[in-house]
Amino acid sequence: MRQIRCVITLVLALSLISYADGNSWDRVRYNGGTLQTKVDPKEWDNHLTITSDQITFKLKDGQSLDIPTKSVTGLSYGQEAHRRVGTMIALGILVAPIALFGLFHKTRLHFIGIEYQKDGKKGGLLLQGDKDNYRAILMALKSTTDAPLAVAEKDREFVPTSVKATVMKDSDEVEVKTAATKESGSVSVSSTPNAADLYVDGEFSGNTPSKLTLETGKHTVKITTKGYKDWSREITVRQGSDVNLSATLEQ
After folding, report:
1. pLDDT tens string 95-126
2. Side by side, which strands form the sheet with 210-215?
3. What predicted TM-score, i.e. pTM, was given to this entire model?
4. What totals of helices (H) and strands (E) does the chain contain, helices first?
5. Whole-angstrom distance, CA of residue 1 vs CA of residue 12
6. Domains, the chain, ranges and CATH?
7. Neighbours of 218 (CB within 10 A)
8. pLDDT digit string, tens, across residues 17-37
9. Phi and psi (nearest 5°) for 42?
10. Closest residue by Cα to residue 28 from 47, 50, 51, 54
């Protein structure tokens, strides 16, 4: 009996550690913001970790910044991210010079802006994800901070439709809600192993664990991760319902 208790305790401890680790990415560029650094904005290999309580960003030069998720006041993507953090620097709120090369780049660069207030001071980061991780970063930021996400009209198509965003058009804010906001229900998805890719009706919708708001009706939820077989279920969402899905992926 004592051995069984020890095993259970160990499993629970490992689960908590895994959850605390959150989602991490190494291919992230730093284009400007709170941190003063000589790291080239074109260099990758900076490290970003997002948990339910904290965002941690580590630069290649060893600098590190911890941002409590509750202190995040705004998120942004694409050209809007570049504009917002650039404005904070122009106003003297941030000290690090912003890189402008991205505005004139021929290929799409996935800028992600994080605005926060910590110890009574405003701060911000302008990061850049790659084509394979920026959606997951946006989903993790949105789900952990619940901060408003702003995006330019022409960039809206690159943000997952399951994410509620505010489209910026001709200096006016036009709030765009997903179809799920009229008649919808909640779906909480977790998986073993954690941090797997989550798809709803064939569209990438973030990483597990995640809580989604979906339009009423039938949906197909699929969870995938490297080294494991795909897991999928068809669910029916009703108005005001709260569905819980727990997937155990097989190798």
Report:
1. 555 554 444 444 578 999 999 998 888 899 99
2. 210-215, 184-192, 242-248
3. 0.63
4. 3, 17
5. 17
6. 22-176 (2.30.29.30), 179-248 (2.60.40.10)
7. 11
8. 343 445 899 999 998 888 888
9. -90, -5
10. 47
